[in-house]
Amino acid sequence: MKMRTDGEAAATMTAWNRAGLVVRRLMHHVELILEHYGKYGRLMRLHRPIGIWLLLWPTLWALWLAGDGVPDPKVFVVFVLGTVVMRSAGCIINDFADRKIDPHVRRTADRPLANGDVAPGEALILFFGLMLVALGLVLTLNRLTLWLAAAGAVVAVVYPFTKRWLSAPQFVLGIAFSWGVPMAYAAQLGEIPRIGWLLFVATIVWVVIYDTQYAMADREDDIQLGVNSTAVLFGDMDRTAIAGMQLLFLLALALVGRGAELGPWFFGSLGLALLLFLYQQFLIRNRDPDGCIRAFLNNAWLGGCVFAGILLDYVFGAGGG
To answer: Is the dihedral of CA 157, 158, 162, 165 positive or negative?
Structure first.
C-alpha cells in the first residue's frame, strides 16, 4: 500500500514538473513576443501617453461645446479612438524623419528607430497601417469631416520635416495637434462656426507653449545639430514669449466661454489654469532640462482642468444657455 502511495506521489510530482516546464516555456514565448512587439509600442510611444492627452483634451473641449454639453456618442468614440491612432502614427513619422538626428540627442537616443530596434521599412508599414485604421474611422463620419481629416493627415506628415527649414516648426505642430477642433465641430454640426475657429486658434497657441517648453530641454543639442525650434528662435526671451502666449491662450478661452455662454465653473477652471501656468513658469525659471520637461508634462493637467470646467458648467451651470 505504501509503495503504491509513493508511486502515485512520484507520478503526481512528474505531472507537476511537466506542467511547470510547459508554463515556463509558455512564459518564455510570451516574453519573446512582448519583446518583439514591444518595440512597436515604444515606437508609437504608448508607454508615454502624454501626447494622447495633449491631443485629446482640445478635441473633447470642442465636442462638448459643439454638442451643447451632449456630444453624439458615435462621434465621441470615433474621435477618442482616432486620437490614439493618429498620435501613434504621428510619433512614427516624426521618428522616421528624425532617425538620423535622434541618435545624437541624449533624450531621444534610445528611441527604436534611433537605436536600430526597428528598421525604417517596418516603421513605414506600421505608419501606413495606422493611417488605414484612421481612414476607416473617419469614413463613418460626414463628408466635411472626411475632407478635414485628409488635410490634417497632410499637416501631420509634413510637420516633422519642417524642423529643417522653418524657424518656428511648433506652429505647424500647433495646427496638426489642434486639427481635431474643427473636425469635432464638423462632425457634430456639419459646419465650423466662428467659435470653433477661435478655439482652434487658442489651441494652436497652447501647443506652441508646451512644445516650446519641450524644446527648451533639447536646445543645446538642437543648436549643434542645426534643428530649428521656437526655443532656439526665442533664445533668452523664451520665458517672456511663453508668458505672453499663456495670457493670449487664457484670453482666447475666455472669449470662447463668453461666446458659448459658459458660467462660473468654466471661468473658475481658467483661474486654475492661470495658477498652473504660473507653476510652469516656476519650473522653467532656470531653463534646466528636467524642469522644462516637467512644465511640458504639467499641461496634461491644464487641459483636463479646462475640460472639467466645460463639463461641470454643462452639468451644474447654464452652459450653452
So the answer is: positive
> Of the ranges 19-23, 94-98, 258-262, which one carries the lowest mean pLDDT score?
19-23
The predicted model scores a pTM of: 0.86
Is 15 or 249 the better-scoring residue by pLDDT?
Answer: 249
Is the pLDDT at 36 greater than 80? The verdict is no
* C-beta of residue 178 within 8 angstroms of C-beta of residue 211: no
Asked if 194 contacts 185 with a C-beta cutoff of 8 angstroms, the reply is no
CA 304: distance to chain centroid? 13
HSE toward the beta carbon, residue 208, CA cutoff 13 A: 27
Rounded to an integer, what distance in angstroms lies between the CA atom of residue 315 and that of residue 307? Answer: 12
Q: What is the 3-state secondary structure (H, E, C) of 212-262?
A: HHHHHCCHHHHHHHCCCCHHHHHHHHHHHHHHHHHHHHHHHHHHHHHHCCC
Contacts of 194 (CB under 8 A, 6+ apart): 259
DSSP 318: -
Name 243's Cβ contacts closer than 8 Å, sequence gap at least 6: 277, 281
**Burial label, 29 (beta-carbon count in 10 A; 0-12, 13-18, 19+):** exposed
Could you count the other beta carbons within 10 Å of the beta carbon of residue 273?
22
Mean pLDDT of the chain: 88
At residue 111, the pLDDT reads 87
In whole angstroms, what is the distance from residue 137 CA to residue 77 CA? 10
* Residues 176-190: b if buried by 16+ CB within 10 A, e if exposed: bbbbbbbbbbbbbee
Q: 3-class DSSP state for residue 148?
A: helix
Tens of pLDDT, residues 178-206: 999 999 999 999 999 999 999 999 999 99
Identify the CA nearest to 122 among candidates 30, 32, 44, 49.
44
Asked if the model's pLDDT at residue 18 lies above 80, the reply is no
User: pLDDT value at position 101?
Assistant: 85
